[in-house]
Design goal:
The complex is a heterodimer.
Chain A (H helix, E strand, L loop, with lengths): L3 E4 L2 E4 L5 E7 L6 E7 L6 E7 L5 E2 L8 E7 L2 E6 L8 E9 L2 E5 L3 E5 L1
Parallel strand pairs in A: 2-11
Antiparallel strand pairs in A: 1-3, 3-8, 4-5, 4-9, 5-6, 7-8, 9-10, 9-11
Chain B lengths: L2 E3 L4 E5 L4 E3 L2 E3 L5 E8 L6 E7 L6 E3 L2 E6 L4 E6 L8 E9 L7 E2 L3 E6 L1
The chains are: A mainly beta, B mainly beta.
């Protein structure tokens, strides 16, 4: 069946580094991709909605200059955490949707900033 | 505004016990989707069920069953004869019926099944 691939699974890096996370729909074209964030022992919170070829829509309280989203093709969206700090450490998970597929989630990326 | 409430933060049971995870939702929409996901310690979300608001029939899949009651805005999940492998965080979620909308998640219920 349809699969969403998210890469990398784990990232550990120093404070101040920028980190890019990729979300790919493997066998379908994703009109819309969503990025969620999950802090330890908390729920998943929507960060932004990404539509191919247009600017992402960010949820209230999410800094668009810090969390750069690019959805350049129908199969790839990227989230770049710029100048990451320890408070950005979290579990980031994407999901992809098209009119022919229900929403599918990636396996998530654990980001640890030292 | 849409909201999903999972009042049970943590539940502990012994293997073979039945357990019900509660989910209450709020929405002004007349049409919507409800979901349940399982999140094991490894972190990925495992899709369990999607139910649209038109269909109030209860569903059974193996040891899993779901009770959708529109009158009480509830979508409860029961695991029969629980097993250690059922230990995980379970999320209930809600979305618009309109295609391509994000999910609103409850806070999750951590289920611990001991042998």
């Amino acid at each position: 069946g349809a699969v969403v691939s998210q890469h990398p699974s784990w990232v550990i890096c120093k404070s101040g580094t920028s980190v890019k996370i990729e979300c790919r729909s493997l066998d379908f074209q994703a009109t819309t991709m969503f990025w969620y964030r999950q802090f330890p022992k908390q729920s998943l919170m929507l960060m932004a909605t990404s539509n191919e070829g247009s600017k992402a829509t960010y949820e209230q309280g999410v800094e668009k200059d810090k969390f750069l989203i690019n959805h350049a093709s129908l199969t790839l969206s990227t989230l770049t955490v710029t100048s990451a700090h320890p408070e950005d450490s979290s579990f980031y998970i994407c999901s992809a949707w098209s009119s022919s597929e229900p929403q599918h989630f990636g396996d998530g990326t654990r980001l640890s900033i030292l | 505004a849409q909201k999903v409430t999972q009042a049970q933060t943590e539940i502990s049971v012994v293997e073979k016990e039945d357990v019900t995870l509660d989910c209450v939702y709020e929405t002004r929409d007349t049409t919507y989707y409800l979901f349940w996901y399982k999140q094991p310690p490894s972190g990925e979300l495992v899709f369990l069920i999607r139910r649209n608001s038109f269909d109030e029939q209860n569903e059974i899949s193996g040891r899993y069953s779901w009770n959708f009651q529109k009158s009480t805005s509830s979508f409860n999940f029961t695991i029969t004869a629980s097993q250690v492998v059922d230990s995980a965080v379970y999320f209930c979620a809600l979305s618009d019926y309109q295609a391509g909308t994000a999910l609103i998640f409850g806070k999750g219920t951590t289920l611990s099944v001991s042998s």
